[in-house]
Amino acid sequence: MKADFLKSKHSQGLGFDAYVATDPTRAPNWQEKYQAVSLEKSQRELLASFVRPMPVICLSGMWCGDCAIQCPLIAAIAAASPMIDLVFLDRDEHSDLSNEVRIAGGNRVPTVLWLSEEFEFVHLLGDRTLSRYRHMAATKLGDSCPLPFFTPPADENAAVLAEWLAEFERVHLILRLSPRLRKLHGD
User: Fold this and answer.
1) For residue 106, what are the β-bridge partners?
2) Total number of domains constituting the chain
3) Does the predicted TM-score (pTM) go above 0.70?
4) Which of 48, 14, 12, 6 shows the shortest CA–CA distance to 30?
5) Cα 172 to the chain's mean position, in Å?
6) Which CATH number is 68's domain given?
7) What is the pLDDT of residues 7-56, one digit of tens each?
């Protein structure tokens, strides 16, 4: 994927509140889940320490149960760092991008793309973290996602939050240690 294409897609994205507002029926559930996210002090400090700009695109669907669970977590992580510029795109409305990042042959959601400040592709994760997959396997939910109003147990939600945070940290370290970006920033 070319940087110009990713930059264009990022510019078309919506912030969390604007994205959620596109579906007034489901918006209250998403907002409720967002309001319930609580980052620990150490997590907030980690995010505040980020020094590299990080554009992020989240392909999502307001209809998707996994998105309703995970996107508020991702949004809370992004809100805790001025270096993270997170936008949401509807997967179906942006099929040109979602078709480029198919997972196991499917257009899965949520799928998160992390980019460098020049909109170069850095990393991708979709559609569930390991904790979500472990929970689904343990409870035999099958291959369909849970209902949009499902709320996972608090310990699972905390594990999923920590896993998403680890991915943001991973990308920040990739960006921070990039010889090209270190030369650009003189650090």
Assistant:
1) 103
2) 1
3) yes
4) 14
5) 14
6) 3.40.30.10
7) 999 999 999 999 999 999 999 999 999 999 999 999 999 999 999 999 99
